[in-house]
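Exercise 7. Predict the joint structure of the components listed below.
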Amino acid sequence: MDNIHTLQEFMLHTKNIIYILILLALAAFPLFWRFLNGRDKE
Amino acid sequence: MTSPQTTTGPGRLLTPFNLVAGIIVVFGMIITILRFTGGLASVTNLSDDNPWGLWIGFDLLVGVALAAGGYVTSAAVYIFGLKRFHAAVRPAILTGFLGYALVVLALHYDVGRPWRLPYPFVVSAGTTSLLFEVAACVALYLTVLFIEFSPAALEWLGLKRARHLVTRLTLVLTILGVVLSTLHQSSLGALFLIVPAKLHPLWYTPYLPIYFFITSTIAGLSMVICESALSHRYFHGKMDAAHLSGNRDLTLGFGKAASWVLLGYFVIKVIGIAADNQWHYLGTGFGAWYLVELLGFVALPAFMYAVGVREKNITIIRWTAAWTVLGIVVNRFNVCLVAFNWHLPAEQRYFPHWMEIGISVFIVTLGILVFRFIVTRMPILHAHPDYDAH
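Solution:
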């Protein structure tokens, strides 16, 4: 937070974190799908 | 095939439920007289700092969200073509109709001059106000729900031609219902965009309208599961074979949908914190309460729904649905009451008067009584023998 002085720095900081979160979510969704439907074939 | 009881006998009047409901109704009537003779100050703790209290936070915000089962179920069946859930439409529409009707009833208590409620439509249309949009949508959607519910009443009354006419409007009404619900469910969240200085930063976000809309679908799915579980238990004799056999499929299907929506909601809630860079608030007292809401009432039910669906365990799904409904109540209370005016000293914070709580309990009780009156008489949980259910 201390290094953020401009709107550009704020956007860069928050967007960086959001991109990481989106990647984590994209990885989590298929795993959740597998967990949810894991027993369907049994 | 199980044939439902289509007539109601005299039954026992003095049951524990009737006794408790009767006491609540009597007290509710007394508080109602006090409210409309003595004004808001005589029965509420509302003030200029806190003009929106329990009657908005619970009766309106929670009531509208929990009534979302109507548009969610009818959209699933008539727009997405999931005909196997058809048996759930009428109970969901009835719950939605009663929910909205009680929201409007509760507004008469909360608004200082309730006789002016129609003013936005006939005297002064504030078309730039979100409240105008909410008022217009709620009025229109209540009308839509009434027409959607009317076939059951018309079948009960034996008015075949009118019933035939109304059922031809089903698809149009469903589309109208989805459009109006999308508009006003999100607008109820957007109302709070006007108070960035009053709402705690963790709850204040430009995404509030999106959050309110998504949580309304979660509330709708969970309420349908809860309502079907309670109907299964208390109105078992009124259900026909289609309702009895479809109950398990409905619970699994809606449970799976709810787990996905909750997961998506959890992700965008975290993204919301990141977008506003509010991480540092999570270490405060309000942050701890926010995490209780986010982890306890969003992440946990998403996981528990998934466990229930994976294990085909109806009991887990039903309890998770009840927990999720509680989570919706917590969310709306947080936005409207707990995190609202968060910077004010404790003595200026709002806590509802016991008579405010009394009126809310009274209105919920009225809803349960009317629901029971209707499902024990009209073809809600069973198809009328004279008509094809589909």
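Discussion. Chain B has 14 helices and no strands.
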